[in-house]
Predict the structure of Septin 4.
Amino acid sequence: MVAGESGLGKSTLVNSLFLTDLYRDRKLLGAEERIMQTVEITKHAVDIEEKGVRLRLTIVDTPGFGDAVNNTECWKPVAEYIDQQFEQYFRDESGLNRKNIQDNRVHCCLYFISPFGHGLRPLDVEFMKALHQRVNIVPILAKADTLTPPEVDRKKRKIREEIEHFGIKIYQFPDCDSDEDEDFKLQDQALKESIPFAVIGSNTVVEARGRRVRGRLYPWGIVEVENPGHCDFVKLRTMLVRTHMQDLKDVTRETHYENYRAQCIQSMTRLVVKERNRKYDQKPGQSWQGEIPSLALGETKPYFCSSIGPGLNLSGCWSPPSLINPFLPLAN
């Protein structure tokens, strides 16, 4: 997922990362149209190949984020989309056919930070605090070619300090094993020190020193996208596609998804216990109408029992699915 206000080069960077044009048919909105625009969620699928391994990635974009005058809670559609993917996976995991589950969970969110300011804005802080328990956030310092190298270093330090100050939990790179070679350890240390990644995106091929490279041509020279001395583009792509893709998926599965799953089960437990207490409070022979929990967090479905005998027997009424077998005695 890529998120951030318009004009920070999200689309260009995505096209640069995967050497494609995902936004060929996109229509650029005028000022009047942007006033009425709300945050949208758009998905694009791309097939890439790395060292003989074919990968199919889904890129989720969030056009309209941060573009309004009043951006209060504009991150809610993004958080709801992430929760919806967790809910769908939870339902599939609880079903009968669990062998071929399609995993559409968001494993990484690239959040673009504007270079035109002094660190994080209030919108940046609120967005990351709202989503850091749901997804792996990787902060991106956009349009690094608008800053000098000393300015990039100062801004990176400032952003890291503010992330720590506000208690934002961004994606943490795992520690290297002791038996790893020195080159890998140096590469891993360089990745950790590069947060936030200062990137430059370009889909234009220019000629520099007799060779053709992707970059941007300025009156004072050429900025090369894939030159490690100019930006962190190569480090970001290496991290996403080669070295840390599996770890991003593992953190999503073991931490973010498990937290969501635990909340769902706790909510279902509370609802079942609540209905059990209402059952015993009901008088014999009196009709009883209530609600049952579904697999979605906090969602309920109505049901009705026509009569309750002297023994308060609820046979023939709803019983929980096999996912919550410990609660079956409560329903019987």
About this structure: Residues 291 and 302 are 4 Å apart (CA to CA). The chain has a mean pLDDT of 77. The first strand starts at residue 2 and ends at 3. The first helix runs from residue 10 to 18.
